């Protein structure tokens, strides 16, 4: 996404199965690689991680 990804907007590189289509590729933005998972982010389930990410999206929305 040349101008960045606005909060709340799905990344154009996200596949239907929620996996990054450019993971490990040189064109993957440094910002994406900079988001490293941590125990408080991931919790014990996918649902916990998705809530955490949604909260981050809301907190960083313009």
Keywords:
3 helices, single chain
**Helix and strand element order:** HHH
Instruction: Please tally the β strands and state the result.
Output: 0
Beta fraction: under 5%
Report the oligomer: single chain
Please summarize the sheet with the most strands.
none
Structure description:
The chain is mostly helical. The chain is 37% helix and 0% strand. It is built from three helices and no strands. The protein has helices at 30-34, 39-42, 46-59. The protein is globular and about 30 Å long. The two termini are 17 Å apart.
Write the layout of secondary structure elements.
Layout: H1 30-34, H2 39-42, H3 46-59
Question: Would you summarize the structure shown here?
Answer:
The chain is mainly alpha-helical. Helices cover 37% and strands 0% of the residues.
């Amino acid at each position: 996404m040349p101008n960045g990804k606005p909060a709340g907007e799905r990344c154009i590189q996200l596949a239907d199965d929620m996996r990054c289509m450019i993971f490990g590729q040189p064109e993957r933005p440094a910002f994406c690689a900079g988001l490293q998972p941590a125990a408080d982010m991931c919790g014990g389930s996918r649902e916990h991680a998705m809530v955490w990410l949604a909260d981050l999206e809301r907190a960083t929305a313009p």
